[in-house]
User: Which sequence fits this backbone?
């Protein structure tokens, strides 16, 4: 069954609880990236235009109970500026009597932001009592937090069962776009996977292998493959308990005729710090006291060449430690290559680090779809049903 959408809701004069994802990065108490806040605006504006009042719910970080470091107050000025109107910030716990009382004065066309839902101990347990208390605050529920849709929490899936419900525009778009990567991807199809651990990507690799022609492996997870193939990796990150798994993946790719590329050269350093002394060596010949921090120039060139002609490209995970120069070269070169393909291919970037890399490289405007959910996008591509999505069917 498809998800119910906003059109299905009768909203005139109604209070709508909207679960958004405002788990945004802060620097010195100020929002440093407003991507997720801006992404929520189309849904909020639609509800306001239909004479509803909007009550926003979000988590922020991983607090253990009420913690001033994790309050949503820094979100308010950014949201007000983006939305172009005032927002009532309610700093009491979301399910408290004080919050219910404060919302009494909320009128159609107005917006309120509740405090961090994870201040409620029952949130991550999907506690029925908390579900009922939150549902009592509104007349309808909209889930627009794709980044949290893979969690069976009270504010994500619990409230949906107690109120008329629908998917917001962001959630609808995310599921629609990412589903193309599973169900009707235009061939040839290439996947780029990086990041720290093979174990984080096993299910995605195994679910996508039968669907793709090309798979490029980078980041620290590449060292597990390199060691599995008999290479020396120095003190690079590796998952020794996943070596057999890496060999199995290589064998499956070969049997299916998938062009699975592992880096052939690496940029290495003795220290994990910016501008550390570095050199390029063959990927399986890293000296004992050195570590690989980026794919090398030959690997970068080979990867860009392997992408040419692709009609569908999915990228999750950086090629190296892109936050530190000069170890950003491989990641940014791939970012440009994927962006350049966007004129003739459907390109998708998903995952927090990949999104940060595509933004930092200046290539984000060219990408076909940039997912706001790291874990959620991976679970969807693993073939799993997301609890938040299931609750809206």
Assistant:
């Amino acid at each position: 069954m498809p998800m119910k959408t906003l059109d299905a809701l009768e909203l005139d004069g109604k209070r709508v609880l909207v679960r958004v994802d405002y788990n945004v990065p802060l620097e010195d108490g100020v929002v440093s990236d407003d991507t997720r806040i801006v992404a929520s605006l189309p849904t909020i504006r639609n509800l306001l235009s239909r004479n509803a009042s909007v009550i926003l719910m979000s988590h922020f970080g991983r607090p253990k109970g009420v913690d001033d470091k994790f309050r949503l107050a820094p979100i308010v000025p950014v949201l007000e500026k983006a939305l172009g109107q005032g927002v009532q910030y309610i700093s009491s716990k979301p399910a408290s009597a004080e919050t219910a009382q404060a919302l009494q004065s909320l009128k159609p066309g107005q917006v309120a932001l509740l405090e961090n839902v994870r201040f409620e101990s029952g949130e991550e347990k999907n506690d029925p009592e908390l579900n009922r208390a939150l549902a009592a605050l509104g007349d309808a529920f909209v889930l627009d937090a794709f980044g949290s849709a893979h969690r069976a929490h009270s504010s994500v899936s619990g409230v949906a069962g107690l109120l008329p419900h629908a998917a917001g525009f962001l959630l609808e778009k995310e599921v629609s776009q990412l589903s193309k990567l599973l169900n009707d991807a235009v061939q040839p199809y290439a996947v780029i996977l990086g990041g720290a651990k093979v174990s984080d990507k096993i299910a995605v690799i195994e679910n996508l292998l039968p669907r793709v022609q090309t798979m490029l492996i980078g980041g620290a997870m590449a060292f597990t493959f390199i060691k599995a193939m008999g290479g020396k990796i120095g003190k690079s990150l590796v998952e020794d308990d996943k070596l057999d798994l890496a060999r199995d993946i290589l064998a499956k790719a070969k049997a299916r005729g998938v062009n699975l590329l592992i880096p052939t050269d690496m940029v290495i350093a003795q220290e994990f710090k910016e501008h550390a002394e570095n050199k390029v060596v063959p990927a399986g010949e890293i000296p004992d006291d050195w570590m690989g921090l980026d794919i090398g120039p030959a690997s970068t060139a080979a990867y860009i060449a392997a992408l040419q002609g692709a009609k569908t490209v999915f990228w999750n995970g950086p090629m190296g430690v892109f936050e530190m120069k000069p170890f950003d070269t491989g990641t940014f070169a791939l970012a440009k290559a994927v962006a350049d393909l966007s004129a003739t291919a459907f390109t998708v970037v998903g995952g927090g680090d990949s999104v940060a890399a595509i933004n930092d490289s200046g290539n984000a405007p060219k990408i076909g779809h940039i997912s706001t959910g790291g874990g959620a996008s991976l679970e969807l591509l693993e073939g799993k049903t997301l609890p938040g999505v299931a609750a809206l069917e």
Notes: Residues 169-183 form the longest helix (15 residues). The CA atoms of residues 323 and 356 lie 9 Å apart.
